[in-house]
Amino acid sequence: MKFSKMQGIGNDYLYFNCFEEKIENPSELAIKLSDRHFGVGSDGIILIEPSDHADCRMDIYNSDGSRAMMCGNGIRCVGKYLYERGLVRKDVLKVDTLSGVKTLFLDVKNGIVHSVKVDMGKPVFRPAEIPVIFSKETVIDEPITVDGNEYRITCVSMGNPHCILFVDDVDAVPIEKIGPELEHASIFPDRANIEFVQVLNSGEAKMRVWERGAGETWACGTGACASAISCAVNHKTGRKVKMHLKGGDLSIEWDDRTDTVFMQGPAEFVFDGTID
User: Fold this and answer.
1) Which residues form the active site (predicted)?
2) Which of 71, 77, 155, 163 is catalytic?
3) Among this protein's residues, is 77 annotated catalytic?
């Protein structure tokens, strides 16, 4: 099997062209190949598959073998892969995901995709649709207690569940302890991605992310969108936010006319390989 390793600001996956390759047992394959000591090393694998109603379908498996609905950094890499490998030579693409069909706008210069802007859709605040078990109509700056500690959280879905906490110093957060505690909290029936956000000014914020099924990663596109939205609804920033993640920066805009969220950032090939 041939694969390509790609990364979007440090969020790295192994990509398989399933127009040509047939992948069996993708969950087991993700666990084996993602291991950074005994495998190739990645946050998971992404299958690029044919679709009847889009340019392709993106199927994601995390490093623990669980299936993900959507990945913002991963979908940018899919766009770059489709264009530069000649599967689809268009600068506006449609990609089918478990969270619906997403539109990608490619910034192409001399045949190279330099960045990708993604229509991420509208944020979801209704607890039952995130999902989060909560009695109020929204979860915005609400207190919860987990393992005897109280946290104030904001919850939003960008195709997958996100729980955002605002902190004074994001680098000082013991993410390896708090991240899994919150990910597996009883109020999250499908677990949740946990974002820790430090607001820098009205247009910038810094974040770290604990991704369900993967642990701390260098970046999370849907998490950056959810964090930017949370900054806005908590009146900490405007609706255009540059999010600084461990792996790099993403530009997020929450359009106040259409309620649509747009994310723009880079995507890069790391290397190609073959698995016996």
Assistant:
1) 71, 220
2) 71
3) no
What pTM did the predictor assign?
0.92
Assess whether 252 and 141 both reside in one domain. Answer: yes
Range of the domain at 78: 2-119+265-274
Number of domains present in the structure of the chain: 2
Residues 109 and 153 in one domain: no
Catalytic residue among 77, 155, 163, 220: 220
Q: Which residues are annotated as a binding site for substrate?
A: 11, 62, 72-73, 160, 193, 211-212, 221-222
pLDDT, tens digit (0-9, with 9 covering 90-100), for 230-242: 999 999 999 999 9
Residues 101 and 219 in one domain: no
Work out the pLDDT band at 197, boundaries 50, 70, 90.
very high
DSSP state of 124: B
| Chain centre distance of CA 146 | 24
> What is the C-alpha end-to-end distance of the chain, expressed in Å?
7
To the query of whether residue 220 is one of the catalytic residues in this protein, the response is yes
Of 183, 88, 177, 173, which Cα lies nearest the Cα of 132? 183
